[in-house]
Amino acid sequence: MSTTPLMIEYEGPFDMDTLYKKSFDYISKLNYDVNETGYKNKTDELEISWIGKRKLNSYVQLIVEVEFHFWNLKDVEYSTDGNPNNKKRMKYGRFKITLKGDVETGYDDDFKTNVWGSTPFAKKLKTTLDGKILDKELEVINNQLFADTLKIQTFMKKVLGMESSNSAY
After folding, report:
1. Counting Cβ atoms within 10 Å, is residue 132 exposed (0-12), middle (13-18) or buried (19+)?
2. Angle between helices 16-29 and 135-160 (to 10 degrees)
3. Is the distance from CB of 27 to CB of 167 less than 8 angstroms?
4. How far, in Å, CA of 9 to CA of 138, rounded?
5. C-alpha 128: how far from its chain's center?
6. Are 93 and 73 in contact (CB under 8 A)?
7. What's 131's DSSP letter?
């Protein structure tokens, strides 16, 4: 089960180090084990990918994917409080942040044996377990995951100082 992707699009000055560190820490604070899975640095373009995993039990885990894509990056000095004497070094550019969530069942992390994909019977059992027995519980878990991705999006907007930094939820 996947959640609806959430996005943040922004153009202007921003503190990249603060955005990176605070967002990473916030996702960790939500009990996700976060790892950077991708980093591409071009002349004025940067792409960063994270995956956060949180085990609910030995059968279900939540996955949050965060993708940053920055364009036209340049260093600027910017006054955050309107006082021209209080300038701070920041980045200026455009970027898009995409947040996705996924509920993974039967991930076999404890056994490392791929039990749920080993035989046709095991595959059928997993399908029945997910689709018939745990379907309502997995729907609740998916809603919890969507709430987590929404919290992360709202937090990032607050770090950026965006006017729409509140969530309807």
Report:
1. exposed
2. 150
3. no
4. 30
5. 29
6. yes
7. I
CA–CA dist 43, 15 (Å, integer): 18
pLDDT for position 58: 82
pLDDT one-digit tens code per residue, 134-156: 778 888 988 999 999 999 999 99
pTM, entire model: 0.83
User: Which pLDDT belongs to residue 114?
Assistant: 62
Question: How far is the C-alpha of 39 from the C-alpha of 87, rounded, in Å?
Answer: 29
Amino acid at 123: K
**How far is the C-alpha of 168 from the C-alpha of 90, rounded, in Å?**
30
| Band of pLDDT at residue 129, cut at 50, 70 and 90 | confident
Structural tokens at position 68: 């940053």
Predicted confidence at residue 123, as pLDDT, reads 74
- The pLDDT value recorded for residue 145 is 94
pLDDT at 121 over 90: no
Alpha-carbon gap, residue 50 to 152, rounded angstroms: 13
Closest listed residue to residue 18, CA positions, set 149, 151, 150, 160: 160
**Where are the chain's structural domains?**
6-160
Counting Cα atoms < 13 Å in the Cβ hemisphere of 35 gives 5
- In the three-class reduction of DSSP (H, G, I as helix; E, B as strand; rest coil), residue 64 is classed as strand
